[in-house]
Amino acid sequence: MQLYPALITDALQTVRYPGNGKNLVEAEMVEDDIRIDGDSVSFSLIFDKPTDPFIKSMVRAAETAIHTYISPEVKVTVNVATRQQPATKNAPVLPGVKNIIGVSSGKGGVGKSTVASNLAVALAAEGYKVGLLDADIFGPSMPKMFGIEDEQLYIHEVDGRQLILPIERYGVKLLSIGFVVDKEKAVLWRGSMASNALKQLIVDADWGELDYFVIDMPPGTSDIHLTLVQTLPITGVVVVTTPQEVALADARKGIAMFREEKVNVPVLGVVENMAYFTPAEHPDERYYIFGKEGGVRLAEKLGVRLLAQIPLVGSIADCGDSGKPIALTEGVTAQAFTHLAHEVIDSVAERNRELPPTHKVELKH
Ligand SMILES: Nc1ncnc2c1ncn2[C@@H]1O[C@H](COP(=O)(O)OP(=O)(O)OP(=O)(O)O)[C@@H](O)[C@H]1O
C-alpha cells in the first residue's frame, strides 16, 4: 500500500461537515500537516470553536473514510485544533474590565511608574480587582518595583485560546513589556515590534474581571500612545508631574494629545509628585525643592482635579528598589497614595456619570 497526501484529501472530501454542508477539504478544515510514515497517517482537523458539537463525529467520519476509500489497514491519527476566534470589530477587547486608567507624564523621571504602581497597590488594598500593565517600552520598571524580575510567564488555555497569565503580587495582576523586551535592547525595537508586543500583552492575556486596569504609559507622546488608544477604550488618564516649570510645560503637551478631538480621552486629574520634602526630624516643615504647587496650578488651569500631592521621600526610591511599593507600608507617604486611590475612584465615577464611554481610536485604512 502506497499512501500519499492527495489520497488522504480525496478520502476526506467524502466527509461532509454538518455545520455548513461542505466537505472537510472545501470547508478548509484539513490542516496542511498531513504526515505519512509507511502505512500510518496523521493530520489535524481544525474547528472554529473548541465547543464545536461535531468534533467527535468528524474525527470518526474521517477515520472511517480513510479505511473505506483507501484501506482498513491504514493507521490513522487525527489531531484536533481550534482556530482562535477573530475579535469582531465592535466586541469589547477586555469584556471583564470596567475601567481603564492610563498613567502618563510629559517627561521621564517625574515618578510616573512610582505613582502607577502605588496607585494599583492602593486600589487593590481597598478591595478592588486591579490589573497593572507596564507599557513603558523605554524603561519598564514594574518587574523591579514588584520584585518579579526573574519570574517566568506562563500561558494557559481559555475557551480554546492560548492566553498569557498575568503575575499576581500584592493583589495586583501584573504584566510588563519588560518581560518581553530586553531592557538593554529596548531602544532598538522598531515601532511596530513594540506595538505588537504590547497589543499581545493586552489582547492575548487572561486579565479576567477587573474593576481598574492601570496602564503605566511611556513618558511624552509616542507610537505606543497611539497603539494604546487604538487597542483600548481608555476611561481616563492620570497625569503625573513635578512642580518644576519644565515638567509642567511637558505635562501640558501630553494632556493636549489626550484632548485632541480624534483621541478624546478624558483627563481624570493631576498628581503632583515630589511636591515637597519634609525631614523626618522636623515633620512640620516643608521644603519646596522643585517649586511650590506647580501641579496645583496646572490642575486649575486645565479645569481638572488635583488628585494628590506626593512628598519627596527617600523611602519611595528604597521601596522601588526593594520590590515592595511604599503604599504597602505605614506612614504619610502611604497615606498620600491611599488618598490618591480614593480620588481616582471618585474621579472615575464622576467621569462615568457625566461622559459617554470612550471609544477606541479607529485606524484609517
Ligand atoms: N516622591 C518621590 N520621592 C522620592 N523619590 C521618588 C519619588 N517619586 C519617584 N521617585 C524616584 O525617582 C526615580 C524615577 O521614578 P519613576 O521611575 O517612577 O519615574 P518615571 O516618571 O516613571 O520615569 P520614566 O518615565 O523614565 O520611567 C525612581 O528612582 C523613583 O524611586
Stretches with pLDDT under 50, minimum 5 residues: none
User: What is the CATH architecture assignment of the largest domain?
Assistant: 3-Layer(aba) Sandwich
CATH topology of the largest domain: Rossmann fold
Q: Structural class, please? A: alpha/beta
**Number of separate domains:** 2
CATH superfamily of the largest domain: P-loop containing nucleotide triphosphate hydrolases
Hetero groups: adenosine-5'-triphosphate
Spatial sequence of strands, sheet with the most strands:
8-9-5-10-4-11-12-13
CATH class designation of the largest domain: Alpha Beta
Overall residue-averaged pLDDT value: 89
Shape: elongated
Strand content: 15-25%
Describe the structure.
The protein is an alpha/beta fold. It has 2 domains: 5-82, Fe-S cluster assembly (FSCA) (GMP Synthetase, Chain A, domain 3), CATH 3.30.300.130; 97-354, Rossmann fold, CATH 3.40.50.300. Helices cover 33% and strands 22% of the residues. The chain has 10 helices and 13 strands. It has helices at residues 5-12, 55-69, 112-125, 142-145, 191-203, 223-231, 245-259, 294-302, 314-322, 332-354, and strands at residues 35-37, 40-47, 75-82, 97-105, 130-134, 154-158, 161-165, 167-169, 172-176, 210-216, 236-241, 267-277, 306-312. The strands form 3 sheets. It has an 8-stranded mixed β-sheet with strand order 8-9-5-10-4-11-12-13. Strands 1-2-3 form a 3-stranded mixed β-sheet, with helices on one face. The chain starts with a helix and ends in an 11-residue tail after the last helix. The structure holds adenosine-5'-triphosphate. Adenosine-5'-triphosphate binds at residues 105, 108-114, 136, 139, 141, 219, 273-274, 310, 312-313, 316-317, 320.
